[in-house]
Amino acid sequence: MDHQTRNDLQLIRRTLSLAERGRGLVSPNPLVGSLVVRGGRVIGEGFHARHGERHAEVAGLDACAGAAAGATLYCNLEPCATSYGADDTHPSGKLTQPCTDRIIREGVARVVVASCDPNPHVAGEGMRQLRAAGIEVVVGLGVDEALPINIAYFTNEVLRRPFVHLKVAQTLDGRIATRSGHSRWITDDSAREHVHRLRGEHDAVLVGRGTAAADDPQLTDRRPQAAGRTQPWRVVLDSHARTPPELRMFSDAHAARTVVCVSGPLGVGEAAGADTRSQAFERSGATVLRVPAAAPGEVGVDVAGVLDALWLLGVRSILVEGGQAVYTSFVRQGLFDQLTAFIAPTLVGDGVDPIGPLALQRLADAPRLEQFSITAIGDQAVATGYRSLPPIRQAVMPARRDASAAVLAAQE
Ligand SMILES: NC(=O)c1ccc[n+]([C@@H]2O[C@H](COP(=O)([O-])OP(=O)(O)OC[C@H]3O[C@@H](n4cnc5c(N)ncnc54)[C@H](OP(=O)(O)O)[C@@H]3O)[C@@H](O)[C@H]2O)c1
Ligand SMILES: [Zn+2]
Which atom of ligand 1 is nearest the CA belonging to 168? Predict the structure, then answer.
């Protein structure tokens, strides 16, 4: 890797840390950071701070106060090229101006981005416009580091469904509960605080009827810094509306919206009771969402149907918090994108496994995570990795076919 590429990569990494400052505030938009560098000096930096506010490139250029002519703009995502959609309407009611127009107008000489934007309104058009204006464009630097931070956005754009993140708290011997179903608490306060943060970063938190009844979880982000922020929706998979309506997620309706996913008919052999319970959910302010039943041989409601229904309601990311039957359904259907396991230094022996039967014959068919990492939080190891990076990487890397392929080759 030559000196300039190494320098460019370092600056792209700085755009990623800037982008992180918008975490939890910009959904469904991507996290984006920008830096403007001239003569080896950073003259402006910016990030997308809140949904509906100016884009990172505009924030970075605003910070330069008209001094960006001849400069290099660094950005983790391809700049947008069209004024589109109500999503990007400025609070003033005006459509935001495409970032490419502003970059060209300022006389920026060079643009370095980590990945293309798979959004069909952009998808290479940003780069095309910049190049047509005579700007040198480099694409693909640091792309592997840029994918995880916008993984939900990329999953939405490429796979057209909510991003699904399975979160498991397990013992060192791989159990999520004792044999009798006890799981509170496998992990300590520090891990649970991290889980609250994860909740705050997703649009919805989902559990099965078994976990709802066993643990009576609130499924909210109760960190002090979450005060005043929108709480994720709480979703329970419960084919026949058998979840007790007195659980906390129904009685604290002010805390967050609760959605119960049922598949008809409600309460086989106990129709009246089930109807009463589903009415009780609705009286508590919860939403009862009817979805297709799972295919024969599978448990409960159809998880693909749940994702479709939640997608239509605007849910773009889901944290799945168990239990075993629910984790198993998402894994069996191949419908998960990230898995995070909090591994506690304790042993319970013959308890509940996180994942049930997958009917795998060959190891080659086993789901495998990429960009797998292990960090520590308090007494726990936190292992996380991604499953659906290959199609996403392909969609955000048209650069492999263009002139900056040389840059990628230099990185490899
Ligand atoms: N350590 C951890 O991270 C952790 C996390 C969560 C839970 N747990 C523990 O796990 C245990 C609960 O696990 P569990 O397996 O019994 O219950 P679960 O997975 O929470 O719920 C299973 C039930 O959900 C309903 N369901 C609806 N659609 C489903 C679908 N597509 N896939 C799977 N289930 C669906 C089914 O009931 P219907 O057929 O009536 O719809 C099913 O019996 C508890 O002991 C809990 O403490 C541990
Ligand atoms: Zn833009």
Answer: 3
Each residue's pLDDT tens digit, 115-165: 999 988 888 899 999 999 999 999 999 999 999 999 999 999 999 999 999
pTM above 0.85, yes or no: yes
Q: What is the mean pLDDT of the chain?
A: 90
Percent of the chain whose pLDDT exceeds 90: 79
Task: Report the CATH number at residue 355.
Answer: 3.40.430.10
CB 207 within 8 A of CB 231: no
**pLDDT of amino acid 268:** 46
> 7 lies in a domain?
yes
**Rounded distance, CA 261 to CA 380, Å?**
33
Does residue 192 sit within a domain? yes
Q: Is 281 in the same domain as 266?
A: yes
Question: Is the shortest distance between the CB of 191 and ligand 1 below 6 Å?
Answer: no
Strand, helix or coil at 178? coil
- In this model, does residue 359 exceed pLDDT 50? yes
**Cα 343 to ligand 1 centroid, rounded to whole Å:** 20
Q: How many other C-beta atoms lie within 10 A of the C-beta of residue 180?
A: 8
Mutate to test the pocket of ligand 1, among 173, 175, 183, 320 (most ligand atoms within 8 A of CB): 183
Q: Which residues surround ligand 2, an ion (CB under 5 A)?
A: 55, 80, 99
Atom of ligand 1 nearest to the CA of 237: 27
Number of domains present in the structure of the chain: 2
214 and 329 housed in the same domain:
yes
Residue 227 CA to ligand 2 centre (angstroms): 29
DSSP bridge partners of 236: 207, 260
pLDDT-derived band at 279, boundaries 50, 70, 90 = confident
Q: What is the pLDDT of residue 95?
A: 58
Residue nearest to atom 32 of ligand 1 (CA): 326
Closest-CA residue, ligand 1 atom 29, reads: 300
* 382 φ/ψ angles, rounded to the nearest 5 degrees: -115, 110
Alpha helix ranges (H) inside 180-260: 189-200, 209-215, 248-251
